[in-house]
Amino acid sequence: MSSSILPARDFCGLARGQWIILLILSLPSIYILLTLPPLWRDSDGFNEVASTFAPKAIIHWLPGYCLFGRLILIGAGTVGSLLGGHGIPYLSISITPLNDVGIYTLLVVQHLFLVFSLFFTVRTLSDSFVLRGVFAALFALTPWLYIYANCVGSEAFSNSLVYLIVAQGWNCLRSNELSRRSVLTYFALLVAAALTRQINAIFASLLPLVLLPLTISELIQRGTSTALSNLQTRFSNSRRFLLFIVVGLFAIGISVLVQQTMCWLFRVPFRSTFGETFEWRLSYLNGLSEQDRADIVNRISRKLGDPVITESLEALDHSLNQGDKWADMFLFYKIDEILVRSGFHEMQQRTWQIDLKLNRIATCVLLQVEPHFWKAVWSDFLRSPMFTQTDLAYPPFVLTDWLQTQLPEPRYGRLRGLVSFQYEVGHYNAIWQCVPYFHILEGIPMLAMVGLTVVFGSYALWSASRVPLAKLGVCYAIGLIVLGFLVALGNCLTTFFGARFYLPVYSLYQTGMMLAISVAITVHIEKLESFRNPR
User: Fold this and answer.
1) Secondary structure of 459-470 in the HEC alphabet?
2) Most buried one in 258, 286, 379, 534, CB count within 10 A?
3) Torsion sign over Cα 401, 406, 410, 411
4) Which pLDDT score, from 0 to 100, does residue 102 have?
5) Residue 6: pLDDT band by 50, 70, 90 thresholds?
6) pLDDT at 97 over 50
7) What's the Cα-to-Cα distance from 2 to each of 11, 13, 186, 315, 362, rounded to whole Å?
8) 100-125 and 155-174 helices, crossing angle to 10°
9) Cis before 55? omega within 30
10) Are 63 and 97 contacting, i.e. CB atoms less than 8 angstroms apart?
11) In Å, how far are 228, 233, 241 from 237, measured between CA atoms?
């Protein structure tokens, strides 16, 4: 009887432990949902879920958030309209009904998705209940995660997907038997992330990046008496490396195919909008001398040989020379003006041509070795690890305040009745200033987590250990750090320097640090046991 009772007690204890972890992770969501009105990531948040769907929500902001967010708003908004006695609203994918029921339903879904992703990550990073509790507390003390879950904007989905990719990647890497289900789950997460934010496509390189040094080591050792690790009983590192390269490339390909298919359905030309994003990176021109700027403009014009591009660049140069303030969309609107003057009156064709020309400018700047551009990129890259989680938490507040100033414009009329905008301008900045939770660990840069990863990882590697996953865990943790630097570099190369672009970098550093801590503690416990029970 006792043998049957003990497993039942163990099961109850395990269940209680899981609920405790869930409670820790859920408390910030409950607190923010009950105390903070819905936040908006400026006009982008509105455009992603409520304005014209095609083509921007397909090829610029991407359909991962724009489509599913709209579907939630349509479904919940219809229910809210019926409960309010207003009947069924006009339903359209491009004119999403907006009411507080729909908005809060979207936020609840975002919070649930975040809590699930963090719970899955905590369970994956450690088997110890105590360590899981510590990791859950660390996540709960990362306020920007919950602030973005309470904000209308694609980061709400993207943040959760980053943690799921990292956790599932570790599951795939450490498995003795790499199951089809694990690979397909990892593939699906990569596709979903790539369809949510463009920079997330770089996550396809995570496992190949980690497996590359292991593969090189394996190839060097092949032919010697050294046997392959027992972790590679079915798949060698080399085969896994090739497998995940294919998985990553296929995930990116599927995400592009989805965008192309949706463009075909909505009858809009498919193209990249990278140039429109890159135009913000060109703000480095504002700080150059007139001669340096003129040289760069002339070099691009000669290289591309496009009179429309030449005229728009010369207009930008002239504007800056006469002391005008930098306008982030100057080239976009100038090219549009020139095309209208040239007889392009159909908007779809005109925006297509604008994107093609901006893409050519972006490609030219990236490929030419222009020292001022690379100096600006390098300067931003060196500054990026110094962001704190307080810096990352601030943008949704200031951006919601900014959107409130735009409400007099007709296109934002549907926002005026929402609870988010029943306050004076500056209300959200005041909330930001007075809530201590939003300023936890203020002044500690995320670079500190890189240092802790190196310290704990070094301890795990240098300690004699029989823990089979120690080296693999450290390798994965370092791979997460390297990928974080690559994401930061990608942002510095392609757009302006803004804190919210470095959310995935923080997540990668954070999970890398946690995994290194988990491995180091496991190694330390194993060492203590070996001293107590020498063989």
Assistant:
1) HHHHCCCCCCCH
2) 258
3) negative
4) 95
5) very low
6) yes
7) 14, 16, 42, 85, 71
8) 20
9) yes
10) no
11) 9, 10, 6
Q: Sort strands 39-40 and 151-152 into parallel, antiparallel or unpaired.
A: parallel
Residue 117 has pLDDT above 80, yes or no: yes
Cβ–Cβ < 8 Å for 29, 140: no
CB 482 within 8 A of CB 213: no
Q: Which helix (H) or strand (E) holds 40?
A: strand 39-40
Mean pLDDT of 123-146: 96
* Torsion sign over Cα 56, 61, 65, 69: negative
d(CA 417, CA 407): 10
Q: Would you state the pLDDT for residue 214?
A: 87
pLDDT band per the 50, 70, 90 thresholds, residue 203: very high
Residues 6+ apart with CB under 8 A from 69: 48, 49, 106, 152, 157
- Residue 13 pLDDT grade (very low, low, confident, very high; cuts 50, 70, 90): low
| pLDDT over 90, % of the chain | 80
Q: Is 353 left (phi over 0), alpha (psi -120 to 50) or beta?
A: alpha
- At 321, the amino acid letter reads N
Highest mean pLDDT among 5-9, 65-69, 234-238, 367-371: 65-69
Ramachandran class of 438: left when φ > 0, alpha when ψ lies in -120 to 50, beta otherwise: alpha
Other Cβ atoms closer than 10 A to 493 = 18
Residue pair 471/522 in contact (Cβ under 8 Å)? The answer is: no
Residue 29 one-letter amino acid: S
* Residue 199: partners with Cβ closer than 8 Å, 6 or more residues away: 487, 490, 491, 494, 501, 504
User: Which H/E stretch holds residue 26?
Assistant: helix 2-35
Neighbours of 256 (CB within 10 A): 16
* Token couple for 484: 């974080």
Residue 472 structure tokens: 């693999």
User: Containing H/E element for 433?
Assistant: helix 427-434
What φ, ψ does residue 443 adopt, rounded to 5°?
95, -10
State pLDDT tens for residues 231-290. 444 447 889 999 999 999 999 999 999 999 999 999 999 999 999 999 999 999 999 999
- Going through 385-479 in order, the beta strands assigned E by DSSP cover none
Long-range residue pairs from 411-416, CB within 8 A, at least 24 positions apart, any chain: 411/51, 412/43, 412/46, 414/50, 414/98, 415/46, 415/98
Residue 73 near residue 97, CB atoms below 8 Å:
yes
DSSP 8-state secondary structure symbol assigned to residue 418: S
| Look-up of token digits 């020498």 | 534
Q: How many residues are recorded in the chain?
A: 535
Using a cut of 0.85, tell me whether the model's pTM lies above it: yes
Residue given tokens 């027992």 in the structure block: 230
